[in-house]
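hi support,

uploading two proteins for the ticket. first:
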Amino acid sequence: MTTSPRSTMVPWLPGPLDRAFVRAWKAGLEALAEALFPEGDPAVPGFETTELVPRMEAYVDSLPPSQRPLVALLFVAVDRLAPLLAPLGPRLGRRPPARRLAVVEGWRGSRIWPLRVLGNAVKASLSMIYFSHPAVFEATGEPAGGAVLVSS
C-alpha cells in the first residue's frame, strides 16, 4: 500500500499499529504472490514479471477506505495464522515458496470450510490481478481486447 502521511490502512489504529499492519500485509502479499505465481517457467510470466505485488497494492488503494483493511487482513491472516492452521512450520512467509504453495493448495482442497474459504480467497484475489496483465494474455494466446487492466 502506498500510504501517504495523511492516509492510513486502518484509521482507528494508532500510527505505529497501523504501520505494523501495513508491513504485515505487504509481507503476506509478497510471500503469497511468490508462491502462487513463481518466476522461472519460460512459458508463463511470474509474479515479478507481471508486477503482481505493486498492482495488487494499487488495486487495494483504489477500494473504498472501509474495504481496504478487509482485503489486507486476508493476506495478514493467511500468512500469520499458518503456524496454527498448517502446523510444523513458521508463518507462511518464512517457509520455502513450494511449501507455501502446498499449504494454500491444501487449504483450497480442505474439507474444513473456513480453510477452503481462506485458500480460495487468496488465490482468487491474486489471480484477478495476475490474469489482467498483458504478458499473461500474450503467454496464454488470449486477446487482451476488452480486458480492464489494473496498473500501478
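and the second one:
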Amino acid sequence: MSPFTGRAIGLAFATLWLLLGAGALPLPWRYVVGGLGVAAIIALVIRAWRMNERRTGLFRMGRYRLSVALEFGAIAFTSYLLMKTGSGGYLIPAVGVIVGLHFIGLWWAGGGIQYLQLAGLMTVIDSFALLLPPGSASMQAVAGLGSAAALAGIAGTGARR
C-alpha cells in the first residue's frame, strides 16, 4: 500500500467521523463545523498527495488484513451484544474504541509509531465519550468529532516515523 493510500483511507474515515459528530450539533453549528471540517480534510488530502513519500517496504499486508478482519468482527459482535442488551446508546463510542485498538494491529503490520499514537488517542477519546449519557448528542459529538480530529491529525500531517 502506498503512503498516500494509507493517508487517504485515514482521511476518508476522518470525514465519516466528522459528519457523525457534526450531525449531533445544533443548527447552525452542524453545518459550520461540518463544512469547515470537510474543507480542512480536503486540504489535508491535497497536502498528503504533495508529500510524495516513498514506500518503506515494511508494511505487511497479511497483518493489515488480519487487523481489519478482527476489527470488523469485534464491531459486529459488539453491535449485536449492545443491541441485545438494550445498550445501543453506547454503540458509537464503543465502535470508536474498537477502531482505536485496531491501530495496534496496523502498528504490527507497518511499524509506524503514529499507529500507536492514534490507537491511544482514539481509545482515550472514545472511552471518555462512554462516560457521557448513552445515546446523547454530547456522546455522539465527542466520539465523532474527537475521532475525526485524531484521525485527521495523524493521517493528514507529518511524515511517517
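thanks. also noticed: The chain is about 75% helix and 0% strand.
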